[in-house]
Predict the structure of WD repeat domain 62.
Amino acid sequence: AGLFPWSGGAWVNLKTSAASSLAVSEDQIFCGCADGLVRVFRPTDLQYITTLQRPHRLGVDVTQNPPHGHLPASSEAQHPDTLALTFDPQGQRLTCVYSDHSVYVWDVKDVGNVRKLYSALYHSSCVWSVEMYPDLPEPSSACLPPASFLTCSSDNTIRLWQADPPALCQNLYSQDLLRILYVGENLQAEGERSEAAGADGKAGFRVLAISPDGQHLAAGDRCGNLRIFGLQFLDELVKIEAHDSDVLCLEFSPPSTGVKLLASASRDRLIHIFSLEKNYSLEQTLNDHSASITAVKFTGEGPEVRLVSCGADKSIYFQSAEQAEDVLMFSRRHHVVEKTALYD
């Protein structure tokens, strides 16, 4: 990649695989390049001045803070590409947008000593689900701070945020982002380029659900897998190859039902019922629907527990639970057909 002046003549080798953006001021030309690079040149003769500090590496653990104001440097780490730049001449601030959808604002008054003023790390692909952490009767048993919520995306990450973060910044990278949970080995491909897709080209998480006691997070992905994470440390406890297609909805039974169950429903037209008390073992599979299932809900109070589901087949199914030995079994009690597909 090279930088050419408008008048023609001289050119500069940027020493990068690609360059995608420019920001020009009276004293500098900023050129956004691959791998997080921003080269700085003098506009009069294209004399090289410096290269700005890179942003975070891909796959960064935001809980591991380097010394304040200094991002860790690594020649081997992969960084997001610099896609867009804008320069504020009055405040001498350079705003950079990177390929993983992160945003940084740099103070470039002194290009020899650039400081980061602000940064935010967002999902780099479609966000499919948002779940608020519940208010628990016993706050001391909560795994997450108040006003926390979780999101999942096609970028193969689950992110933990805090809607009302403390005045003191939680980490150096993003004030309201508490944690990023990466799933997959190649973070460059899976986290930012979504190359680790299934046979149909799909990747990432589709839906989240938090257990009523606030201890577990259930996550369904677009390949049909169901994962259970402990919210205390966000560690993976269970992985189940549950469905043959996207997991579209997850539902924990509320405490009022008197049972501890998890229902998962998918584009493969199946509903699976798992028992929390048996380490999420499969208790039952329901196959009444003839198309994608878009919503499933537990209702009623023990021992009269019911399960209601709807889907793209325009149907609503009502299932009632009956105790059979040591297993709670659901059976169809009522079926309603509407004129259009139902989503919730």
